[in-house]
Amino acid sequence: MSSMRAFTSLATPARRALLSSRNMRSIATYTTHSNATPDASNSTTAQKTHFGFRDVLESEKEQLVGKVFSNVAEKYDVMNDAMSGGVHRLWKDHFIRSMAPGPGTTLLDVAGGTGDIAMRFLDYCKNIHNDSSATVKLVDINPQMLKVGEQRFQSTPYANTNQVSFLVQNAEHLDDIPDESVDVYTIAFGIRNCTHVDRVVKEAYRVLKPGGRFMCLEFSQVENPVISKIYDFYSFDVIPALGQMIANDRESYKYLVESIRQFPPQPAFAKIIRDAGFSTVGKGWEDLTFGVAAIHSGFKL
Q1: Where do the annotations place S-adenosyl-L-methionine binding (predicted)?
Q2: 196 lies in a domain?
Q3: Which residue ranges make up the annotated binding site?
Q4: Please, how many CA atoms are within 13 Å of residue 72, restricted to the half-sphere of its CB?
Q5: Residues 63, 238, 22, CA angle at the centre, nearest 5°?
Q6: Is 52 contained in some domain?
Q7: Which of the 8 DSSP states describes residue 288?
Q8: Which of these ranges, 45-54, 142-151, 210-219, 225-234, has the smallest mean pLDDT?
Q9: Which pTM does this prediction carry?
Q10: Binding-site positions for S-adenosyl-L-methionine
């Protein structure tokens, strides 16, 4: 049984109809829209994309996603712990261990938000290598999320050092990041919110030095039918309720769950990475917790 069928067995008729019409198009949405040039001035010809299970104009999505993350910024870390039971911390720890950065590594952490990956990166370099020369530039399109990250770093040994910097920037257009300027590019739980996933990956390729590494940690597709059924029920029924209870915001967390289901499954995303020019080892990804999340990786050779 697929994850789609598993969830529809629990859903209302209205939700089943919505899921069957939206999820069956999730991969096609990326392949159809990612290379198109939108014309927002003409609503009859302007390209559309998805915002959760809704179809919206490409020109509207960035604003809608921005509103979601402005709403959740202050409670983002608390909700991550509540939604995952703290498992997201283990995923991120493993993500950094898989990176295994060496002394002096330059990291660009895109959609870095509240700084979870950036902090772990610097801690790893300090604790493993006793290194204070590694640097991270933390990039996010949302100023509110970035502000939370900046405030968090103020109480760390990295405050007021040249090891960490912050930049408001669109992942699809890293205009202030030079070509071939960073050793590692990371994006964790952020790429699915971008309008054109392929453009994000191509920008990653541009800014990485030869030999540099692209790493993405993202929610993915669960294949095990039993786990999938439980996961879908938890995602669509429990997480929005937690969002309402903890953050007083059900709709934002409803979108975040829907955005996971719209993201390409692991093989399709791995192909996007290879099509951007990256070389991958093996299949190109590592499933975490039955495929609830996955680490994708590629090298610029």
Answers
A1: 114, 140, 170-171
A2: yes
A3: 114, 140, 170-171
A4: 26
A5: 50
A6: yes
A7: E
A8: 45-54
A9: 0.83
A10: 114, 140, 170-171
